[in-house]
Design a protein that fits this description.
Blueprint (H helix, E strand, L loop, with lengths): L1 H9 L6 H13 L5 H9 L12 H4 L2 H29 L5 H4 L17 H12 L5 H20 L5 H21 L5 H7 L4
């Protein structure tokens, strides 16, 4: 099943130069688009912020709450990438191009294919910046989904690799969100003093 879906998506590569160029560049650099909502949250916190249970004293400063969201995204991405390294040691799944003839659009790398680091980071950020305006949250989700498709299209991951990355990113995001309740509120306020 995994190979069949991979063949369907990767089989579209090599047919249309414009699609190849988009898929190649998005597979390599699409993750940088997630910096946009993170920077927007850091420097221009949303006006319609809704506190999420940390208490009125902690959340009275909207800027502190918004920056805590970005801090959670960074912590989540780092922890999720660490978990990926452990998973890769336990199950070193080879990349699709190692065992199959594929349309490879980007430079080959030979670290484990499962789970996808790009997908993990994308969903770590998309799952953490949940207090953004609705359009920005959807922007993050669309970027994450397109990145998953681009990595398969470019021939560097199987579909289960990118799905696994999404699960890791969202799972760690949920854990960090829960654990953040134990972070002293003064840390959120300290974030407001940063540039």
């Amino acid at each position: 099943m995994d190979w069949n879906v991979f063949s369907l998506i990767n089989g579209l590569a090599g047919r249309w130069p414009l699609l190849d160029a988009f898929g190649r560049e998005f597979a390599k650099y699409g993750i940088l688009l997630l910096v946009v909502p993170a920077l927007a949250t850091w420097f221009w916190p949303p006006r319609d912020w809704r506190p999420d249970g940390r208490g009125p004293a902690a959340w009275s400063n909207v800027r502190a709450a918004a920056r805590a969201d970005v801090a959670r995204a960074v912590v989540t991405a780092l922890l999720a990438m660490g978990l990926n390294q452990i998973i890769g040691l336990v199950w070193a799944r080879p990349r699709p191009f190692v065992n199959h003839q594929v349309h490879l659009l980007i430079e080959p790398v030979h670290d484990p294919s499962f789970p996808s680091d790009h997908s993990t980071v994308a969903w770590s950020v998309a799952g953490s910046l949940r207090h953004l305006p609705r359009w920005a949250r959807w922007f993050g989700v669309v970027v994450a989904v397109l990145l998953m498709l681009a990595r398969v299209f470019a021939g560097v991951h199987y579909p289960l690799d990118v799905l696994g990355g999404a699960v890791v990113g969202l799972f760690v995001s949920a854990i960090v969100r829960w654990a953040w309740r134990f972070v002293p509120p003064r840390f959120d306020l300290w974030l407001t003093r940063l540039p």
